[in-house]
Amino acid sequence: MPAATGIEDLLRHLSPQVLGAVVRRYGHFDAAEDATQEALIAAAAQWPADGVPDNPRAWLIRVASRKLTDLLRSDQARVQREVQWHYTPGTGPVTDYDDSLILLLMCCHPSLNVAAQIALTLRAVGGLTTAEIAREFLTPEDTMTRRITRAKQRIKDSGVPFAMPASQDQPERLTAVLHVLYLIFTEGYASSRADLAGEAIRLARMLYRALPDDGEVAGLLALMLLTDARRDARTGPDGEPIPMAEQDRSRWNTGYIREGTELITTALSSGPPGPYQLQAAIAALHDEAASAGDTDWPQIAALYELLVSADPGNPVIRLNHAVAVAMSAGPRAGLAMLETLEPDRRISADHRFLTARAHLLEMAGQTAAAREAYRAAAARAPAVPQQRYLNARASRL
User: Fold this and answer.
1) What is the pLDDT of residue 4?
2) Does residue 229 form part of some domain?
3) Angle, in degrees to the nearest 10, between helices 297-310 and 315-329
4) How far apart are CA 87 and CA 66, in angstroms?
5) In this predicted structure, what is the pLDDT of residue 110?
6) In a domain? residue 325
7) Domain final position from 48, 83, 118
8) Which range marks the domain in which residue 343 is found?
9) What is the 3-state secondary structure (H, E, C) of the chain?
10) Which of 111, 202, 262, 330 has the most CB atoms around it within 10 Å of its CB?
11) Residues 349-389: pLDDT tens digits?
12) Torsion of CA 356, 359, 360, 364, to 10 degrees
């Protein structure tokens, strides 16, 4: 009898393919999604006892098609509704994976705001329930339901066909997909919600399999893997943060580091690097260092300089650049760069800025100023473990 977790993983993998196939063949996105969910529920109930079919994807599509027919027959108003979703053949061969890629691109339609793009991506492509998405983002379920419903209606009203976007629109749509996956990952990683970060990695793998020659797709997947590799070592028993320099590197995920390094090495050799590739290269330099003292800070500072040149208005990148310069050229050089960020309240009032300033002041031997900066950072830290950690640093000084 197949393991339940194996069947669950298979169903999650097949979910976007089945949904895409049903939408492409029959239209009616909402009804197709309901039918696909019923087919997945039926499979979860039957396959553990009866065994997985020889062609599980075809089985799910057949069951979902029957469910969709039943749904449409039971709702004559839906039957009479003008079909808004239809399939437009592409110029190349259609593979089983095309539908998943189209779903990703569709969920990141430019008519939607970022919050709606994230929710719809997790619902339609990730296979998460509305309740699961609401729980991940600490949002009431009814609020998330309305957000997803409005997103579907907005896409339907736009009249976009279920097909690959026109060639001139594909770069913009792919940029939106990468941004959404990046936001999903960073939300999961920053809040220590491993399931959400893991889902972002799974979706990034899906996108990479569809577009293996796109350097930024490879760069984003590499960045996620190289960052998530440090997950188990970044917090202590009580949830307190552990700075990278103090982490037990034996707890880092060497498989993720190896895979991410290979991905970014290949991507960087294919042409001029984009922002995700640059960030992945920085993460690789951190992960490949045998110890904190072996970190190649001059190279990291140079990569951040390229990132700043590409996105000079991003205060977080400029903050990280200042820290890298401090580590390579001395704390006073970094503090001078932080001074240029002071007028930007988006970052200068953030606990990350105050923490970095405190650390550089401590490195520079300005103990009293560092102590006050740590306390100011603790006052603005969003989580209790961070507050305890920063106050402890201040008390130690």
Assistant:
1) 61
2) no
3) 150
4) 19
5) 80
6) yes
7) 83
8) 296-396
9) CCCHHHHHHHHHHHHHHHHHHHHHHHCCHHHHHHHHHHHHHHHHHHHHHHCCCCCHHHHHHHHHHHHHHHHHHCCHHHHHCCCCCCECCCCCCCCCCHHHHHHHHHHCCCCCCHHHHHHHHHHHHCCCCHHHHHHHCCCCHHHHHHHHHHHHHHHHHHCCCECCCCCCCHHHHHHHHHHHHHHHHHHHHHCCCHHHHHHHHHHHHHHHHHCCCCHHHHHHHHHHHHHHCCHHHCECCCCCECCHHHCCHHHCCHHHHHHHHHHHHHHHCCCCCCHHHHHHHHHHHHHHCCCHHHCCHHHHHHHHHHHHHHCCCCHHHHHHHHHHHHHHHCHHHHHHHHHHHCCCHHHHCCHHHHHHHHHHHHHCCCHHHHHHHHHHHHHHCCCHHHHHHHHHHHHHC
10) 202
11) 899 999 999 999 999 999 999 999 999 999 999 889 999 99
12) 170
CATH of the domain at 375: 1.25.40.10
Residue type, 184: I
Whole-prediction pTM value? 0.80
Tell which of 23, 55, 83 closes a domain: 83
pLDDT (tens digit per residue) in 77-102:
444 443 343 333 333 333 344 477 78
In a domain, 165, yes or no: no
330 part of a folded domain: yes
Tokens, residue 353? 């800025």
